[in-house]
Each structure stands twice: as structure tokens, then as C-alpha cells.
Amino acid sequence: MDNNISDAIGVIAQSADTVFILLGAILVLAMHAGFAFLEVGTVRHKNQVNALVKIITDFAFSAVAYFVIGYQIAYGSHFFVSAETLGANHGYELVKFFFLLTFAAAIPAIVSGGIAERGSFKPFLFASALIVAFVYPFFEGIIWNGNFGFQAWLEYTFGAQFHDFAGSVVVHAMGGWLALVAILLLGSRRGRKPGIAFAPSNIPFLALGSWVLIVGWFGFNVMSAQTLDGISGLVAVNSLMAMVGGTIIALIVGKNDPGFIHNGPLAGLVAVCAGSDLMHPVGAFIVGGVAGGLFVVIYTKLQRSSKVDDVLGVWPLHGLCGVWGGIAAGIFGQSAFGGLGGVSFSAQVVGTIAGVIVAIIGGILVYGTINKVSSLRLSQEDEFHGADIAIHKIGSTNSDK
């Protein structure tokens, strides 16, 4: 009788874990719609269709690359076994793959916003597949699966491993610094003059994208526990407070600019990912506020740059705020600052730098190689007409009656 009760409890627990992580996967999948509409609202009208198409096709190519190669590199397991084996434990391992895939596919979605309006379609699709197959899972496995002994070395040297609960560095900094490589390789959009930015084409779409990302982010962070018994309300409230902090500071520093106001919360959420399970909510508010201010200041400076034409500001938003998040976990995660402790500032700095190095080297290898084979940049004529007509043969709206 006791064995039957124990078995029943085990089945229920396994089922609950499967549902838990499935809901997380669905929420993060929805975030890709947020990426799409954030880009649609920011780019000019002649590139809106391309923004939508890139996000969904990047996800499709990423899914194949991660299923066949990437997941095995990161975690040493694959899916080329019987369906019966895959379905064991209510298919938990399959759903875990789905959840982690939505993280991996965020990398191309981040890059997409930086190279918008002048990036070639198919070459970047191929590049996205290579990055999700090789570059991202290489670092993901090092941090989240202990590959190559890097985490063990950090723990031995600094007393703690690199802590990145939900991917400030593993996902966001990786995506932001990969994007910077592509942005520098492509150069500026034709017609863009430093100090004179192209205005967002649709503020309501931009705001919609921001809101979808904000809501989905609670799946991104909270469900990173991956099991129901690991769920923590601290993660949820820390995410909330970082989002709020980013919004308020972006409002103040950005002087009421709606683009900054809707990117501020995203900056805060990027930064809090790493230490959201460790910080006190007040610490999370400060971390988010610093990130919101950092984004506004750096993106404003980039608008005056002739070399860095980052359309959505993905390098400051994901790259720099992700770096800040990795380091901030080593500050506000400390018990002296109200956190739970068990984290090393030195380990956080070293781990963060390692992520940036992997992203830069990986970006140079992938984007540099593909650019030699097939140009990553649209032709001058196609860029002038816009990616919508040049690539997809249709505009975003039709006024025919």
C-alpha cells in the first residue's frame, strides 16, 4: 500500500514538473512575438514584413539546429532513440529541450534587431543555424552543464561557480555581443547620418512588443527552476522590481521618450536574470534601474556614431545590460547586500568576460566566414527599396479597396 502511494506521488510530481516547464516553454515562445513586434515598431515601414518573417524563420532554423546538434553539444544527450524512450517520465526531457530551445532561439532574435534594414535574409538564416548549433551551446554547456571543467575551476579558485540563473550572460550578453560583431561587419544603413536617427515607424507596435516580452519574461525567469519544487516567488518579485526600476530610470533619463520607456523595463529584466534567485527585491530594483539608465545613455551615444548602427539598440540592451547583470549578481547576491549569498564577485566577473569572449570569437568565425561566401548585406538597390519588396515581394499594408 505504501509503495503504491509513493509511486502515485512520484507520477504526480513528474507530471507536475512536465506541465511546469511546458508552461515556461510556451511563455518564452510567446516572447518571440515580442521580439518581432518590437522590431516591427522600430524599423521603417519598408522593412516591417522582413522583421516579422526573420523572427519566425530564425526560430524554425534554430529548432532544427538545436535538435540535431546544439542540445547534444550542451548536454550530451540526443533524440535519435525510440519514441518510447523519449516519452519516458511523461516526456519531461523533451519538454525540457523545448524550453531550452526557446532560450537558444532568442540569440538570432536579438541579433535580428541589430542588423535590421540592411542584412541579407538567407545568409543570416544560415548564420543563425550555425550559431545555435555550435557557438551558443558551447558556452551554454560550460555554464549550465559544467562542461570542460570551467565551473569547477572557478569554484576551486574563487570559492563559487559562475551563477547565471536565467541567462543574463548565457543568453543576453551572448546575443548582444554576437550582434555587435555583425553590426560592425555590416556597417551603417545607407542614408543614416550620425545624430539624426530614423524615427520608429509604429510606437503602438513597439509598445506591444515590449509588453509581450515583459509578460513572457516571468516564464523565462521563474521557470528556469525547471522543476516545480524549485519554484520561487523571490524570482518573480525580483523580476518585477527590476522591470519597474528599469522603467522609472529610463523615463527620467530618457526624458519621456516612448522608445526608451518601453525598452527600460527590458533592460532591467535582462540584468536581473543572472541573480534573480539570489537578490533582495530592493537590490533587484537597483540593478534594474542601473540597467535602464545604462541603456538610455549608451544608445543615445550610439546614435551619434558613424560606425555602430544598432537599429534596436540590442548591444546596449542585451550585451551591456547582460554583462551588468552577470556582475551585479556577484554584488547584490551577497548576504551583505541583502542577498542569499553563495556567490563570488570574482567568479562573476571572470564568467561574464568568458561569455563575451566566446560571443566575439564565435561571431567573427561565423559571420566572417559566411560573408566571404555570400554577402551578409543587401545590395544598395534592395536596401533603398526596402527588404519587404526586395525579398518578400509585398509591403506590410495594402490600401487597395
From TrEMBL:
The keyword Ubl conjugation does not apply. Keywords: Ammonia transport, Membrane, Transmembrane, Transmembrane helix, Transport. It is a multi-pass membrane protein. It is found in: Membrane. Residues 19-393 form the Ammonium transporter AmtB-like domain. Coiled coil: none annotated. InterPro entries: Ammonium/urea_transptr, Ammonium_transpt_CS, NH4_transpt_AmtB-like_dom. It holds the Pfam family Ammonium_transp. SUPFAM superfamilies: Ammonium transporter. It comes from the Bacteria. Signal peptide: none annotated. The chain crosses the membrane at residues 20-40, 52-74, 94-112, 124-145, 165-186, 198-219, 231-253, 260-278, 284-302, 314-337, 349-370. Belongs to the ammonia transporter channel (TC 1.A.11.2) family. This is Ammonium transporter. It comes from Shewanella aestuarii. The lineage of its organism: Bacteria, Pseudomonadati, Pseudomonadota, Gammaproteobacteria, Alteromonadales.
